[in-house]
Each structure stands twice: as C-alpha cells, then as structure tokens.
Amino acid sequence: MDTQRLILFIVFSFSLLLLWENWQNRNAPQAPAPATQQAAGSVNSVPQAPTAPSAAAAVAPAAGSLFTPAPVAVVKTPLMTATISAEGGDLRHLVLDKYQETDRADTPLPLFEQTPNHPYVAQSGLIGAQLPNHKTLFQLAPGTYTLAPGQKSLTLPLTWTDPATGVTVTKTYTFTPHSYLIRLAYSVKNAGTAPVPLNAYFQFVRNDKPPPGESHFIHAYTGPAIYTAEKKFQKIPFSNIADHSAEFEKRANNGWVGMVQHHFVAAWLPPQGPQREFYVRDLGGGLFSAGLIVPEGSVAPGQTVSFDAPLYAGPQLQNQLAKIAPGLEYTRDYGLLTPIAVPIFWALEKIHAIVGNWGWAIVILTIIIKLLLFPLSAKSYKSMAHMRQLTPKLQKLKELYGDDRQKLHQAMAELYKTEKVNPLGGCLPIVMQIPVFIALYWVLLGAVELRGAPWILWIHDLTKADPYYVLPILMGITMFIQTKLNPTPPDPIQAKVMMIMPIAFSIFFFFFPAGLVLYWLTNNILSIAQQWVVTKQMEKQGKKSKG
Asked: 156 by DSSP, 3-state: which?
C-alpha cells in the first residue's frame, strides 16, 4: 500500500467512524425504563438525605408539570438574559445574547428553556418535609432587572418562611456584568426551638435531544457529566442512564455536576470540602435529571447558616474554564488527544490575536504545522517519488506474470531490493502525523470561539457548512491533483477507486463545517506544493545519475 492510499484509508476510516458514532447516538433504540422508575419520575418528589439508602432519588416532576405557572423575574446583563421562577427559584430560561442559534443566525441562543419540546432547567432546593424544594413557591418581586453600565453586580433575592417552624430561607442569585458565572447563595434562619438539619441539592433537568440545528454528520456529546479529583471527567450518556448501565463516582468531597452540549456547558460548582453525593435519573418521556446532594450541617435555634453553589452557564471558552473550577476545561472534550489539542488551540488563539480573523488563523496554523512536520513529509514524498519512477517497471512485471500473484510479488520484491526502495518507507512518517491532524480536527470542531466567525466573502460562519460548496469542490480538485502526482497502482481496480475518492470526499465534505474544510484544503495545497518540489528534485537526480 503506497503512502497516499494509506492517508486516504485512514482519513476515510476516521470519517466513517464519525458517521457511525453519530448514527448510533441518534438512532440506537432506547431501553425502556421499568414501570417503577417511570412512576417515581412522575411524582414531585425530592431526594432523601445522604444518609438514607435512596439518596440518589430523582428530584424532578414529570415533563407535563415541569412548568407550573408562577411569577417570574427577568435579569438582563451584557452577556445573558435569565428568567427565574418563584416556584422553587428555578432558572427556567437563559439566553446567551452574544451567541446565535445554529439554524437561525438572527436569534440569540437559548441555553435553558421551558419549552415542552426541549425542556432544560437548573433547579435547587433543600431536603426535608418542612423545608422548601424546587416545587415550593417563594416570595419574589416580579419584573425586569437590568445590570446597568458601571454596576458591579445585581442581586435577586427569593424568600420563604414557615410560620409553624420559624424557619426562613432566602435564595439569592448574583449576576456580574462580564461573567457567565452566576452565584446562588442560601441563607437559612432558624427562629424556632428545634435544630434543623440541612441537606441541599442542585440539579439539571433536561430532555435527551441534541441542541436544535446540530449537524447530522458530525456528532458532539450531549448529556450529563461529573467531575471528581479521583475519577476526573466522567461523561454519562442518556442511553446509559435509561438502561441502568451508567457508571460514575457516587460520592466525593469535591467535584461538580454538569450538562454538556456542543460548544456550551452548564455546571453546578459547590465549594470543595463537604462530602457530596452525585446522582442521575431517567424520569421517563425522554426526560433526565443529573445533580448532587451536599450536606450543610444543621441550624441551631436562633442561628443562621449560609452556603452557596456557583452555577456556570455559558460557552466552553478554553482560556476561562480552568480558572472557574478544576476539571471544567474537560467539558471541551478532545478525548485522548487532549495533550496535543490544547497547545494547538493555544497557538491558533495566539495567531488569531495577531491577524484578527479565525479563517486566516486556521490557514496560518496549518502552514506552521506543515513546516514543523516538513522533515517527516519530505521523507514520505521521496519514497513516493521513488515508487513513481518504478511505475513503468512494475507495469511490465504485471504484464509479464499476468495473474500469477505469487511470482508477481516475488518479482516486485526483487525489484525493490535491487533499486533499494522500501515501498512502505513513507508510511511511518505519515502515521506519526495523523494524531496531530486529528487533534486539529477536534480543535476546530470544539472551538466555540469560531461560532459565528466569518472568513471571507461568502463564508460568514466557520462552524457551518459552505453554503455554495466552493471549499469542498476545491478540496476534491486538490485530492485529484494529489492522486495524479502519486504512483499509479498496478491494480486497475485500485486505480479506479483512487480516481473516485476525490469525488466521494467532496460530496462528504459538503456537510462539514467550513473551518474544517478550509483546514483540509490548505493542507492539501501545501502537500501538493511540497510533493511537486520533492518529485522534481528526485527526477533531476535521476537524470544526473543516468547522464
């Protein structure tokens, strides 16, 4: 197998893997939840205290009762618009005003929604029969609150009092102007005569559908995730929750729980220290919950206890996530290639800071990577040039031995030995480059910084497909040129396949984000230039040796 065929084989296999993974995630049948579990999800239950065996019980109502009408307050900041309900103090609607929906460029992106087709809310509460949970009605001053220019923060309090026990609970949301981090603080005052044990829960309730407008050809993970210092980043697919095969660390004295989707994440981030319990649950009807329970001690009579749990709800900005909470940067999932992908994005971001355009930053980064890998590529192209020089001799051997494959292979081996050519000599350098190129692929796929970023002319968003298919067609042309520069396979069937591959890949890349196609196109152009130069040098050397 020559080097070009190896490259195409690896790329094609990788593409098929992406398609298969996407098909599995979108079309694999869901395991039906047991009847008992369905029933549990249909009641407005709250979790038990962490000492009870059922501490990981679901904390959500059924989909039909998820959005009970209640007074709301709308908070506007320069980055977001949040809607908070008096029922439980749920954060029921959150619009990221700096980002647009994938399929509607004129519409700001909703992260949390209270729509029946795509419910996704952040909830919290206290555990106990006489304490407020996410179904309790709080006192809330409805209206619209705007974070004014120059204002450092905006607070929104919600209060609840039980006259029978003398317990008053205040939930306070705090918003800041230039951060996606929302602080939720609890204050519990006990004016009664008996101590009140405190166990708080923080959770997300969401359906299992991917965000609207997501590509059917490129799959990005959507679902719950848990991080602890011991087990690190743990993704919990909805399908595993449904069939009860989900595996994750249940208890730890650190960590957070989140919901991940392409380019965005929401995560409850309680302070480290208290032993917490993580849970996930299938609530039925395609609705799931993921959360954690944190024991906060107890409130003695006449005392007040305060605690908080920050909520991050926003884009997966690589240079900010690690500063917010340990492990939050892993929500931008590069998989096993993270050690390579992180510095690649760092370089891409530095280039963008200079040129001011993500499209040109991709082009320049591809050139830099190509230059760094030039020695490996040159060795591969020299090997291909040697093979190209031997093509006439190989064709004669094929004509001489016809269908006698054994004799043909023996004769080819003798020819390689005589000419001192290793037919696989160019494979190893190419294989060594593959992790770099795949890591760059994942970087471009996961970079929310490219969302809505234009390049030139008709390319208005590098995360969307080229609307006129210009880049995929150009990429197909470059692949055809590469095919012509490579040795013609002795097998006529292989030769035909090599000619068809550029067309197939062009059609396949019609549906890829423009930024990814731009990278492949740039890489192909540079490869053609390098291969042409190396081939010409080899031809000149061959003529000199004959002369």
From this structure: strand
Q: Which tokens hold the place of 240?
A: 């595993």
What does the pLDDT look like over 422-450, one tens digit per residue? Answer: 665 555 556 666 787 788 888 888 889 88
Q: pTM for the full model? A: 0.79
Both tokens assigned to 346: 């760092």
User: What CA–CA distance (Å, rounded) separates 82 from 69?
Assistant: 17
Distance (Å, whole) CA 9 – CA 28: 27
**In 3D, which of 270, 221, 281, 219 has the Cα closest to residue 58?**
281
Backbone torsions φ then ψ of 514, nearest 5 degrees: -60, -35
Tens-digit pLDDT profile for residues 394-421: 677 776 766 667 777 777 777 767 766 6
CATH annotation of 31-333: 2.70.98.90
| C-alpha–C-alpha distance, residues 92 and 84, integer Å | 6
The length of the chain, given as a count of residues: 547
Backbone angles phi and psi of 471, in degrees to 5: -65, -45
Q: For 41, phi and psi rounded to 5 degrees?
A: -75, -15
Which residue, 7, 12, 49, is CA-closest to 508?
Answer: 12
- Amino acid letter, residue 409: H
DSSP secondary structure string for all residues of 496-529: HHHHHHHHHHHHHGGGSBHHHHHHHHHHHHHHHH
Is residue 64 scored above 50 in pLDDT? Answer: no
The amino acid at 111: L
Neighbouring C-alpha atoms within 13 Å toward the C-beta of 446: 28
Q: Rounded distance, CA 490 to CA 482, Å?
A: 17
Six-digit token pair at 461?
A: 């968003």
Task: Give per-residue burial for 373-388: e unless 16+ CB within 10 Å, then b.
Answer: beebbbbbbbbbbbbb
**Nearest-CA neighbor of 166 among 299, 28, 19, 9?**
299
Domain boundaries, the chain: 3-16+342-546, 31-333
Reported as type and span, the H/E element at residue 363 is: helix 358-372
Segment 189-205, tens digit of pLDDT: 999 889 999 999 999 99
